[in-house]
Amino acid sequence: VFIAQSRASGSHRDLEDEELTRIFVMIPKTYTEEDLREKFKMYGDIEYCSIIKNKTTGESKGLGYVRYLKPSQAARAIEECDRSYRAILAEPKNKSSESFEHDYYTNNMRQDLRGNTLPFCMQPEFCSFEKTETRIQEPVSKRLSVVSRLPFIQEQLFALFDLVPGLEYCDVQRDPHTNSGYAVIQYSTAASAIYAKYKLHGFEYPPGNRLTVIFLEDGNDSSE
């Protein structure tokens, strides 16, 4: 259905090149382009695979493109691949790829935070923690400190951390001498704070601006 609708909306050749044969997927950051090709070659002939990387560090962002030779192959990949890949049709190259990637990543982050499971953990290769990493080494609390190199907007930061249940308050503080952002977040339980730190430490919000999230002492017994 979506192929038929897209074809009716413009040039058949251009659409086939840009909208109907290229898919966008969420992948483990350890994946190489060969890993990506290996996972998706069963659905059809692949023209190319590419992994989106941080322009500064060269590290994978955990996102990638797969371009097939035929629209039917791309459609099959979207329909049949594991749901953890969150496969969708990619935006045409002439549109803003960074905006598309940011919207896709943010939307999937919202789904992960609202759900009861962590992404990719149904498969061992997707798990973010090693099995030996069974205890959190740092003291935990219900309160978090959030720092970034860009200033925060109160409403936006509140909306981001409110995706984790139990947010009690979000206090954005401004330093008149620097342009950096600093905020204090507090949840009703330590469990919510731990989950928020795990999900949002290192998250780029907005894209290119990495958040640093650490625990703040809240006066309670952290051994619980």
From TrEMBL:
<protein>
    <submittedName>
        <fullName>RBM45 protein</fullName>
    </submittedName>
</protein>
<dbReference type="InterPro" id="IPR034207">
    <property type="entry name" value="RBM45_RRM3"/>
</dbReference>
<dbReference type="GO" id="GO:0003723">
    <property type="term" value="F:RNA binding"/>
</dbReference>
<dbReference type="Pfam" id="PF00076">
    <property type="entry name" value="RRM_1"/>
</dbReference>
<keyword id="KW-0677">Repeat</keyword>
<dbReference type="InterPro" id="IPR034206">
    <property type="entry name" value="RBM45_RRM2"/>
</dbReference>
<dbReference type="InterPro" id="IPR012677">
    <property type="entry name" value="Nucleotide-bd_a/b_plait_sf"/>
</dbReference>
<keyword id="KW-0694">RNA-binding</keyword>
<dbReference type="InterPro" id="IPR035979">
    <property type="entry name" value="RBD_domain_sf"/>
</dbReference>
<feature type="domain" description="RRM">
    <location>
        <begin position="21"/>
        <end position="95"/>
    </location>
</feature>
<dbReference type="InterPro" id="IPR000504">
    <property type="entry name" value="RRM_dom"/>
</dbReference>
